[in-house]
Amino acid sequence: MNHDRYDDAYIADILNTVKTIVMVGASASSNRPSFFAMKYLLGKNFAVIPLNPAQAGQEILGRKVAGSLADITAPVDMVDIFRNSAAALDVTRECVRLKDKLGLKVIWMQLSVRNDEAAREAEAAGLRVVMNRCPKIEYGRLSGEIGWAGVNAGLISSKRPQLGGSGVQNHVIGPKR
Fold first, then answer.
1. Is this prediction's pTM over 0.85?
2. What is the number of structural domains in the chain?
3. What is the CATH number of the domain that holds 89?
4. Residue 166 lies in a domain
5. Residue 133 is part of which domain span?
6. How far is Cα 56 from Cα 120, in angstroms, rounded to an integer?
7. Which of 25, 59, 78, 95 gives a 20 to 30 Å CA spacing to 110?
8. SS3 of residue 84 by DSSP
9. Residue pair 74/16 in contact by the 8 Å Cβ criterion
10. What angle is formed at CA 42 by the lines to CA 40 and CA 46, rounded to 5 degrees?
């Protein structure tokens, strides 16, 4: 797969089918990108499990922090990597080792995180991969919400946005599966 550009349908399919996300590198600091990405995803009804060895056992946004992927017993659809590009390889390899135990389907590497070797290994193991993207931004872009901040979503449409369960300030990409 070409990881320089993703079709909107590929990203939308991932975001519409994922239910549980492990956020590797989650931070309890409210000014860190992982904190507000996690808060946004929780607001979109994703189950998010924060993972940070330094904060294991504590809580971030009311969710208990895991110390490692091996500590997680619940099914996980996606691992969102908030670590640097070099660290993404070890995280991905651990994901590949635990993919059957967790039921893992997707490895997502955050903005500025790209590791082509990790992507090759994950895809060889049957996992879908997204690199150098943020699920919060992609969800907002595909749902039209990002336009509220004056950002050009790159989409032109006369369709009305699909609304989530909590009204006009909650757009969705499409029906969750």
1. yes
2. 1
3. 3.40.50.720
4. no
5. 8-139
6. 30
7. 59
8. coil
9. no
10. 120
